């Protein structure tokens, strides 16, 4: 069964850091681009970042550029999101998603259940 | 950035009736080299992650009921639910993946009348 399981969410103070992980199973991980999408409580979806299957290409939303880093370990079938300098408006459920192909310019085919990040003093 | 808009914000439809959601992009998401619209529709039910419904603007994902259909090209797109069922109550989002940053529409909430 194809599955994505996020972890690493929690409560952090403004200016703090968190690293999210997304463990993938049931498919050849290195073949697919992966993405992070977030959703603030009661709000819509916001695309955060995407990484190619090889990890060579990465792209970010302007709102997180320079603060967040997406990466992957294809040997461990795991996607990461390192989040630094967190702000109150970064609070959201963070979803990892498998794209439909190796290209970053693909649909978000499968989503994990999400992990909640709270930023508060 | 490509701005995605959706209309209406919400709609209530009787069971068995048609629901129509519109999505508009601020610039074309049609890639001329492959003639594909980089436009996807997602369904998000309460308390659940989003689910892929329609990709390339009109291709139904495997397992999605055929009452869901997508149409449109360039900048104007439509999601139709031909005969609304109780399990279709959800928020529906369109997304463009033509250019970075990929952007979502604000969502359309569908309820039963």
Name its key features:
heterodimer; A: mainly beta; seven-stranded mixed beta sheet; four-stranded antiparallel beta sheet; 0% helix; globular; B: 113 residues; 13 strands
Characterization of the model:
The complex is a heterodimer of chains A (121) and B (113). Chain A has 121 residues and is mostly beta strands. In chain A, 0% of the residues lie in helices and 50% in strands. Chain A is built from no helices and eleven strands. Chain A has strands at residues 3-7, 10-12, 18-25, 34-39, 45-51, 58-60, 68-73, 78-83, 92-99, 108-111, 115-119. Chain A starts with a strand and ends with a strand. The relative contact order of chain A is 0.31. Chain B is mainly β. Chain B is built from no helices and 13 strands. Chain B has strands at 4-7, 10-13, 19-25, 30-31, 36-37, 39-44, 51-55, 59-60, 68-73, 76-81, 90-96, 103-104, 108-112. Chain B is globular, with a radius of gyration of 13 Å. Chain B starts with a strand and ends with a strand. The model of chain B has no long low-confidence stretch (mean pLDDT 98). At the A-B interface, strand 5 and strand 10 of A face strand 6, strand 7, strand 11 and strand 12 of B.
Strand-residue fraction of chain B? over 45%
Low-confidence stretches of chain A are none
The largest β sheet of chain A comes out as: 7 strands, mixed
Radius of gyration of chain A: 13 Å
Structural class of chain B: mainly beta
**Number of E-type strands of chain A:** 11
The proportion of residues forming helix of chain A, as a percent range, comes to under 10%
Rg value of chain B: 13 Å
Assign the structural class of chain A, choosing from mainly alpha, mainly beta, alpha/beta, alpha+beta, or little secondary structure. Answer: mainly beta
Q: Beta-strand percentage of chain A?
A: over 45%
Low-confidence stretches of chain B: none
- SSE arrangement of chain B, N to C: EEEEEEEEEEEEE
């Amino acid at each position: 069964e194809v599955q994505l399981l996020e972890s690493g969410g929690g409560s952090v103070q403004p200016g703090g850091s968190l690293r999210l992980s997304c463990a993938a199973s049931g498919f050849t991980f290195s073949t697919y681009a992966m993405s992070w999408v977030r959703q603030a409580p009661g709000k819509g979806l916001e695309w955060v970042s995407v990484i190619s299957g090889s990890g060579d290409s990465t792209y970010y939303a302007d709102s997180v550029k320079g603060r967040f880093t997406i990466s992957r370990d294809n040997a461990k079938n795991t996607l990461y999101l390192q989040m630094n300098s967190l702000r109150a408006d970064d609070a959201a459920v963070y979803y990892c998603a498998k794209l439909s192909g190796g290209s970053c310019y693909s649909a978000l085919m499968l989503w994990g259940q999400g992990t909640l990040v709270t930023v508060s003093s | 950035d490509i701005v995605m808009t959706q209309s209406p914000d919400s709609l209530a439809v009787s069971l068995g009736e048609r629901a129509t959601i519109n999505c508009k992009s601020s610039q074309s998401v049609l890639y001329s080299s492959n003639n594909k619209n980089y436009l996807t529709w997602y369904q998000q039910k309460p308390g659940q992650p989003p689910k892929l419904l329609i990709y390339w603007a009109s291709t139904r994902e495997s397992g999605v009921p055929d009452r869901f259909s997508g149409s449109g090209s360039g900048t104007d797109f439509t999601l139709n639910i031909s005969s609304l069922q109780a399990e279709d109550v959800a928020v529906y989002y369109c997304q463009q993946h033509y250019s970075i940053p990929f952007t979502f529409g604000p969502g359309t909430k569908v309820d039963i009348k």
